[in-house]
Every structure is written in structure tokens, then in C-alpha cells.
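Lab meeting notes turned into a lecture example. A postdoc, R.K., suggested we walk through two folding results consecutively so the class can see how the record format repeats. The first protein's sequence and C-alpha cells come next.
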Amino acid sequence: MKKAVVLLSGGLDSSTTLYYAIDKGFEVRALIFDYGQRHRKEIFAAQAIARSAGVPFYVVRISLPWKGSALLDKAIKVPKKLSHKGSIPPTYVPARNIIFVSFAASFAEAVGARAIFIGANAVDYSGYPDCRPEFFNAFQKTLDKGLKAGVEKRGIRILTPLITLSKADIVRLGRRLKVPFEKTWSCYNKGKKPCGVCDSCRLRAKGFWEADQKH
């Protein structure tokens, strides 16, 4: 069976991506990052999702002591409204997907996986530059040149199945795949319940609301 590494944050998009990869017949390993984010709730959610899917998971702890993001520095407030289009919000973590995909590429090459799945989305999103198709196209070229697997023409592909979907489309796909959405956590803030006002909460709510509308 073909192997894949799935980057799993415990949120709506990454959880749907995990179930998508399984549905496509991949033998999946989930990679979860503890990178000093505001709370550990999303890490616990990711672990719960992996267990529900019946896939092995690995939690990798990394340190970003220079911070530079509202998700890493509690002195920076998480915005309470959707970011204006064209601007990059303070919740952007510098080079996060470069770091994550690099770790995933190392993992994939070591275990003989031929694909890396990431639930990046460039439609209903916060405007992060490392969630766009052009970023992943460019980084794919880096992997092709910088990995043994790439040089030997056994390239590891970066797959972004949600990149052009709306949040409503992602919700519909997740429902079809029977993703346990009740176990997911998307909120940027810590609490017993999602805050409902951060970018991630608003985009999630928008997706569920639009998915339930009759057309």
C-alpha cells in the first residue's frame, strides 16, 4: 500500500485531509506539531482525530523562541474580526509551513512515503502567504532538488486537496468522509469553548452555515 504523511493540527481542514488521504487508499502516518502555540488543546484534538481514524501519529516538539506571532506570543492580541483581504494578520507564524513541510519531507523519506498531505486552503482563509498554491509549487521544486528521493526520480509529492475549496465545500467533503467534527478544534484562543470571534472560528462557522443552506 502507498504510504503518506499527513500534517494534522486537529482543526477542520487538516482532519478532513487526513480522512481524504485514507479514503484515497494511503497508509497514513499523522504528524502533529507542538511548537509553542497558545494552548495545547489543538494537540489533544489532533491526537483524538488520529485515534478515531485508526492511524499512528507522532507529536514533534519544536521551539520558536523568537515568537513573531499572536499564536506564539501572548503579548500580541488575537484579532476579533476577520482580517482584511490583502493584509497578513498577526496570527501568521513566520515560515510555519516551510518548517512543517520540511519536517514532513524528512519523515516521509525516512519511512518510504511518497506523499505529504497538508490541509492548506487559499479560498476561505486568513491570507497567510504559505497557504497559497504558488508557495507549494515552489516548495515542491525544492524537494525535487534537495531530497535523495527527488534526485533518484522517486519524488515525494506535496498534495493539497483542499487548496481551492470553500469552507462549505470542505464541510461537505468532511461529512461525506465521516470526519468526527465534534472532536476537532479550530479556535486560536484557549478556553472550554471556542471564542467564536477569531479568524479561525469565524471561517469555520461560515463554512458550516453555508454548507447547511439549500441551493
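The second example is placed directly after the first for contrast:
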Amino acid sequence: MTAQTLRRSAALLVSLLVCFAAAGLGGLATSTSISDWYPTLNKPPFNPPAWLFAPVWNLLFALMAVAAWRVYDRVPAGVIRRAALTLFGVQLLANILWSVLFFGLRQPGGALVEILALEALIVATTIVFWRLDRIAGALLVPYTLWVAFAIALNGAIWWLN
């Protein structure tokens, strides 16, 4: 294994660890309410079955990790790469915050406001990544669409409860 291959592999591993650490933190917040509070809420007819959320989010976090890794791997070190990855990190933190607000604090209204900001951050990150590496940008499109759906779901849950 060459030094470059080792560096690239380590960078991918770090990207996966960061993204799945964020997923884990969000999961901790979610776990406090998923079995007792969330099932008691009125939900819209388009609410997906509970079993669907974990595989979708795992796939999305894996796609996010690969997207961030591609930007790290293919964009020369400097201000542009640092800004793109910082924006990515901010949206990851916003992702965690949504779980804390919705599930941890049981505040669907506050979570609705926050998820709108999260979507704006995701769209901005997708655009920036797309301009730097089209594949990295494309990898974030499913995440962007899922969070757009989550906005509708969050809004409906807030409205119905």
C-alpha cells in the first residue's frame, strides 16, 4: 500500500467516523423519546413506518461521509476546501441539534424552525460541493430531498399535536 493510498484511506475512515459520530449523537437524543413519546403523537398519513428511518439515515450518513471525503481528497488544501468542509461540519451540527430539539426536548415547533435552517445549510453545502466536485455534490442530493420530506413531516406533526 502506497503512502498516498494509506492517506486517502485514513481520510475516508475519519470522514466516516465523524459522520457516524454525529449520527450517534443524534441517535442518543432520539432514543430518549422514540419508544414512549413519539408513538403517542398524531402523525400524518404520509408518515413512513418506523423501521424505515434507521436504514435511510445510515445510508444518508454514509453518502455524506463519502461526499466530504471526496472534497477533502480532490480539492487542493487551502481556504476553499477549509470553507467547504467547515460548512459541511456546521450542517452536521445542525443535524444533531434537530434531533435534540425534536426528540430530546420534545419540541416539534422549535425543531421545525431549526430544520428549515438545516435545509438551507444542506442546500448551501450541496451547491458548494457540486462546484468543487460534481460527484460530492450529487451524493448530498438524497440527503437534501430526505430533509425536505422531513420538513413536511415535522410540520405536520407540529400542526396535528
